[in-house]
Amino acid sequence: LKPFWIKPVWLQFPRALFQCFSQGGAMRTVALLGLPVLAYAGSSKLSVFGHKVPDTDATCAAIAYAWELKETGFDATPFLLGDLNPETQYVLKAIGIQKPALLEGKLADKTPVAIVDTNNPMELPEGIEKAAIHSIVDHHKLAGLTNHEPLAVDMRPLCSAGSILYARAKEQNRTPPKEIAGCMLSSILSDSLVFRSPTTTK
Questions:
Q1: Residue 17: which H helix or E strand, with range?
Q2: pLDDT value of position 14
Q3: Checking CA distances to 6, which of 134, 138, 160, 188 falls within 20 to 30 Å?
């Protein structure tokens, strides 16, 4: 996880977000390719979350993925697995999105969940191995998460989970509302260190 105090990144959000919203260019920020994932579901209600010690990508990707799932008929709600850092607090305030609720305690068996920005069980709630995992959207290497049911997995070697969700929106011909587009853009800007990180992808 990146330290949240990298000042050059989040101090540049005001200008980037203003340009995105004033020019309507959020969905033109990057061009990504990929194949859509058809989601299997045993339940229409889903808790969507990223990793513990949530950064901007984990938080905004959870919000954006919950939006995508709602668009496809799920009752999806984004959650946090910890307190927000200053960068992410600023992002949500600037975009105008309410902070997701905190998911606390052990997951009950068969709890329907969707995961973003990680597949590492050490970064997820206790009980995740017995949860009903609907899907994972991630840009990290495989990290040992197991479960007992089929699930949809969209893992790509891209800069951020937000990058994958942006690509999925394009592939599915979905136009996200301004706030969700802002979440996708913020994920990309944060994880790419405003396109300066060596992990930045085109």
A1: helix 13-23
A2: 52
A3: 138
CB 151 within 8 A of CB 134: yes
Cα 27 from Cα 94, distance rounded (Å): 18
Model confidence, pTM = 0.79
Burial of 140 (0-12, 13-18, 19+ CB in 10 A): middle
Q: Which amino acid is at 56?
A: T
List the 101-102 sheet strands across, edge first.
101-102, 75-80, 45-49, 112-116, 132-138, 152-155
SS3 state at 167: helix
Neighbours of 58 (CB within 10 A): 29
Q: In sequence order, what are the beta bridge partners of 102?
A: 80
Q: Per the structure block, which two tokens stand in for 55?
A: 């950064």
The residues, any chain, with a CB within 8 Å of residue 72's CB and separated by 6 or more, are 39
Nearest to 49 by CA among 124, 130, 108, 127: 124
